[in-house]
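sanity check this fold:
=====
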Amino acid sequence: MLDSPAPLFTPARFGDIELANRVVMAPLTRDRAGPGQVPTPLMATYYAQRAGAGMIVSEGTQISREGQGYLDTPGLHSAEQVAGWRRVTDAVHGRGGRIVVQLWHVGRISHVSLRDGGAPPVSSTSRRAATRTFTAAGFEAVSEPRALERSEIPRLVDDYRRAAALAMQAGFDGVEVHGANGYLIEQFLRDSVNDRQDDYGGPPAHRVRLLVEVMTAIAGEIGAGRTGLRLSPVTPANDAGPDSDPQALYGLVVQRLAALKLAFLHVIEGATGGARDHAPFDYEALRRTYKAAHPGGGWIVNNGYDRAMAMAALEQGRADAVAFGKAFIANPDLPERLRRDAALNLPDRKTFYGGGAEGYTDYPALDG
């Protein structure tokens, strides 16, 4: 009698999204979009190669020109971009995969050279972040932002809603809102960044307002069963200093969102791409809070997981799926390698950002 498959390799359903397994491809910025921030045929090849993932989360995709912060990242706000993404989703679906788009607004993590008319980036604050971004000149210090006016926020929320609608036109199975890594949503969430005096700043109930409005608008447009969110409670990415009480803040976030009955939450544990124990945080308590209010919501964990850790997380009920990032760069057939416990290719950091097929679509598969 054959042994039952490990939970990591069993099907799952997150809202309206069916997964063939619980190995998720995390969003990975690769800076290979074409003119007009349009996805290219090479991008379709790249994602199709990785269609064995239970679910692919696309690279961060800006909801508007205002939302762009890096050179050659794709958008989802024009007809040409929708057509480019349709090539990608058709290619993934042609291989039996599922793909959601990560909707992204970088906020203050941008540069005037990437902005229409050289306008300053926008944020919850007018304070510049102590970090760099990728421009035509290479890596440059980000520009000084301006704080969004209160009157601009409804338009911003509608930009997210419109991008979600376009995602459905482009054939995506759903969307993941980027609420992590020091970008716009997190710039509103954390009191280390948000210094506003209006009803989007100050106490936690005000700082979560933008996120709740965005998620409500998207769920209303495309259905909560196709809507997810990525969070990073303690990561220091992009000069996002720690919140004064992250456990309470993110506990409030998941409580406020539970009523929407989203398809999934995707949580980065520790410092993105770094130490898992970067700062104290009880992720299991956060998961229990969310599951108590929304038992059917998928809980995806991320950051530094290897095969053994991923299998243990699912077997112990601490996750419903595990997202892998860099391993998917170098291993287009990562789920099969994990299933067989096969050796993994190592990624070449020199080809992470920009360029062509080298370090993008030329990594070998086990049987290729």
Q: What stands out?
A: Residues 153-169 form the longest helix (17 residues).
